[in-house]
Amino acid sequence: MVQAWYMDESPDDPRRPHRPEPGRPVGLEQLRRLGVLYWKLDADKYENDPELEKIRRERNYSWMDIITITKDKLPNYEEKIKMFYEEHLHLDDEIRYILDGSGYFDVRDAEDKWIRIHMEKGDMITLPAGIYHRFTVDEQNYVKAMRLFVGDPVWTAYNRPADHFDAREQYVKFLTQTA
């Protein structure tokens, strides 16, 4: 099962866990209230997994590709890692399925605090359009992930502040309705 927690405020290497003492765990229900959805799948059979196909069909995830984030596979690795870790939002949902390796998605809660979600092989997550978030690999420096989209892929990230976008306004409205 996925692990999530409120992050400490340390400026230390973002690839470290950043777990405060005492810990402040976050459960799936709290993530759901933020619009973050989670599934645990069998990544060893992603090519022919009926459960993945069912999710894709039900949620209309029609496009996919696979990205490997590691120094020897991703051109401009250091630059890309810095870009992924900049706080941003998207105008569409962000859907990622970890096929191998591990990393962290950080999302902002309703009070603007960082929640760190540790993603490992078999974890699939959907971040709603308009949520501020960021991503980094962990200390393994390796993750292989499936990227899924509804329709054609849109790669545009809007760095914070981006509150003027309709997707952000709709997300903030969603938060007030689930509070």
UniProtKB/TrEMBL annotation:
<keyword id="KW-0533">Nickel</keyword>
<feature type="binding site">
    <location>
        <position position="90"/>
    </location>
    <ligand>
        <name>Fe(2+)</name>
    </ligand>
</feature>
<dbReference type="GO" id="GO:0005506">
    <property type="term" value="F:iron ion binding"/>
</dbReference>
<feature type="binding site">
    <location>
        <position position="90"/>
    </location>
    <ligand>
        <name>Ni(2+)</name>
    </ligand>
</feature>
<dbReference type="GO" id="GO:0010309">
    <property type="term" value="F:acireductone dioxygenase [iron(II)-requiring] activity"/>
</dbReference>
<comment type="function">
    <text>Catalyzes 2 different reactions between oxygen and the acireductone 1,2-dihydroxy-3-keto-5-methylthiopentene (DHK-MTPene) depending upon the metal bound in the active site. Fe-containing acireductone dioxygenase (Fe-ARD) produces formate and 2-keto-4-methylthiobutyrate (KMTB), the alpha-ketoacid precursor of methionine in the methionine recycle pathway. Ni-containing acireductone dioxygenase (Ni-ARD) produces methylthiopropionate, carbon monoxide and formate, and does not lie on the methionine recycle pathway. Also down-regulates cell migration mediated by MMP14.</text>
</comment>
<feature type="binding site">
    <location>
        <position position="133"/>
    </location>
    <ligand>
        <name>Fe(2+)</name>
    </ligand>
</feature>
<keyword id="KW-1003">Cell membrane</keyword>
<keyword id="KW-0539">Nucleus</keyword>
<dbReference type="GO" id="GO:0005886">
    <property type="term" value="C:plasma membrane"/>
</dbReference>
<dbReference type="InterPro" id="IPR004313">
    <property type="entry name" value="ARD"/>
</dbReference>
<keyword id="KW-0963">Cytoplasm</keyword>
<comment type="pathway">
    <text>Amino-acid biosynthesis; L-methionine biosynthesis via salvage pathway; L-methionine from S-methyl-5-thio-alpha-D-ribose 1-phosphate: step 5/6.</text>
</comment>
<dbReference type="InterPro" id="IPR014710">
    <property type="entry name" value="RmlC-like_jellyroll"/>
</dbReference>
<keyword id="KW-0486">Methionine biosynthesis</keyword>
<feature type="compositionally biased region" description="Basic and acidic residues">
    <location>
        <begin position="12"/>
        <end position="22"/>
    </location>
</feature>
<dbReference type="Pfam" id="PF03079">
    <property type="entry name" value="ARD"/>
</dbReference>
<dbReference type="GO" id="GO:0016151">
    <property type="term" value="F:nickel cation binding"/>
</dbReference>
<feature type="binding site">
    <location>
        <position position="88"/>
    </location>
    <ligand>
        <name>Ni(2+)</name>
    </ligand>
</feature>
<keyword id="KW-0472">Membrane</keyword>
<dbReference type="GO" id="GO:0005737">
    <property type="term" value="C:cytoplasm"/>
</dbReference>
<keyword id="KW-0560">Oxidoreductase</keyword>
<feature type="region of interest" description="Disordered">
    <location>
        <begin position="1"/>
        <end position="26"/>
    </location>
</feature>
<feature type="binding site">
    <location>
        <position position="88"/>
    </location>
    <ligand>
        <name>Fe(2+)</name>
    </ligand>
</feature>
<feature type="binding site">
    <location>
        <position position="133"/>
    </location>
    <ligand>
        <name>Ni(2+)</name>
    </ligand>
</feature>
<protein>
    <recommendedName>
        <fullName>Acireductone dioxygenase</fullName>
        <ecNumber>1.13.11.53</ecNumber>
        <ecNumber>1.13.11.54</ecNumber>
    </recommendedName>
</protein>
<keyword id="KW-0028">Amino-acid biosynthesis</keyword>
<feature type="binding site">
    <location>
        <position position="94"/>
    </location>
    <ligand>
        <name>Fe(2+)</name>
    </ligand>
</feature>
<dbReference type="GO" id="GO:0005634">
    <property type="term" value="C:nucleus"/>
</dbReference>
<feature type="binding site">
    <location>
        <position position="94"/>
    </location>
    <ligand>
        <name>Ni(2+)</name>
    </ligand>
</feature>
<dbReference type="InterPro" id="IPR027496">
    <property type="entry name" value="ARD_euk"/>
</dbReference>
<keyword id="KW-0223">Dioxygenase</keyword>
<comment type="subunit">
    <text>Monomer. Interacts with MMP14.</text>
</comment>
<comment type="similarity">
    <text>Belongs to the acireductone dioxygenase (ARD) family.</text>
</comment>
<dbReference type="InterPro" id="IPR011051">
    <property type="entry name" value="RmlC_Cupin_sf"/>
</dbReference>
<dbReference type="GO" id="GO:0010308">
    <property type="term" value="F:acireductone dioxygenase (Ni2+-requiring) activity"/>
</dbReference>
<keyword id="KW-0479">Metal-binding</keyword>
<dbReference type="GO" id="GO:0019509">
    <property type="term" value="P:L-methionine salvage from methylthioadenosine"/>
</dbReference>
<keyword id="KW-0408">Iron</keyword>
